[in-house]
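Exercise 3.2. Students should predict the tertiary structure of the chain below and write it as structure tokens, then compare their answer with the key that follows.

Predict this chain's 3D structure.
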Amino acid sequence: MQLIRKKATDEEIEPVINAIEEQAKALGVEDPKVPSTDALVTSICFVGSKSLSHVLSCIERNKDRLLAIGSASQRARCQIITSVMEYWADQPGIAINIIDKLLNYTILTPLSVLEWALSESMAAGTVLAKSHIFEMISATVGKVTNRMRQIVAARTQPGLYEPQLSVLDETLARERADMQALFQFIEDSIVSVAAGSNDELMERGDGSGDLPEDAIIRQWGRRWLRVFRRKAAVEEAFIIDALANATPVGTTAPVKTEAADGDIKIADADDQ
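Answer key:
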């Protein structure tokens, strides 16, 4: 914490991180990067707790290390989210804002946020009743779908030629597959809760799944499924409709002109 406050370099922070990991290994911790990540991110949250600009400054200075953590260990990447959410447990709105910024920096990926919320922290489905978790998932999905719509808008603009078309088509196919995988992950994670067949949910109480709270959890699962199934269908319909109505390659979009009698007519750009 003192090193981060002093704006120390990576070289100065490295020995402390190594010492934490060595101690973790000696204690038999399976992934030593988890406790070192917890120490680093908690310190960033503490030093940056004065304001959003402070925490963003801390993240910026430690961006390379955080990026390396995310690519080196899936558990450590989840620990980044855990540390932020636990530090701001009493003010989850601030935590969600920081998670959003970490997504912007690509320190986290949309899928890693979903994995943390709907796999690591599912807690027999009770997580689905937490409004800030829904806000975080919804905002994360929104980032993905907004990017998808921007790519579709770029692909469907008139006057495109090679090599622009090939690049945009490849990007569109890749991002569309990623978006579909994201929605599928949500579906796979929640469908068992909605059906009452989630392992943790079935192990609660007497295992019958007839507890009043279990019925409420199943209801939350069905609500989540309904929301994100609709969202997935809307986004797919948008893509299909936009591509179907796109201006053919090499042509110019029709231009609306005002006729003498006030009616609207469509004319080719060559006629203007």
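Discussion points: The chain has two domains: 1-91, 109-247. The beta strands are 255-258, 264-267.
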